[in-house]
Amino acid sequence: MEWPHPRSEYRQPYDSTIALKGSDSLRVQGCAFDGMFCGGQTWTRLN
C-alpha cells in the first residue's frame, strides 16, 4: 500500500510511547486507528 494513502479514511494517526523502566528494561506500547488496536512489549537487555 502506498503511503500516504490517497483515500482519507486510511490516514489515521498512530500513538506510541517508549519508556525506560530501570537500567535494563524498556517498555514500548502504542495504539492505531484511534485506540482500536493497542499493544505493547517490555524489552529486557540480554547480557
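That was protein one. Protein two is written in the same sequence-then-structure order:
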Amino acid sequence: MKLSQVTLPASDLATSIAFYEKLGFVLIVKDGDYARLENPQRLQKS
C-alpha cells in the first residue's frame, strides 16, 4: 500500500502549503482554511 494523503493541522496554512510543495507534494484542494496535498510518489507510474 502506498501513502497518498494525510491530514495535518497547521497554524499557518500558506506556509505549510509552501513547505510541502517544496518537498514535491501537489496541492489538489485549497478552500478557506483547508488544503489537501497529494504524495508525489503516489503520482509516479510504476
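Residues 21 and 42 are 14 Å apart (CA to CA). Keep this in mind for the problem set.
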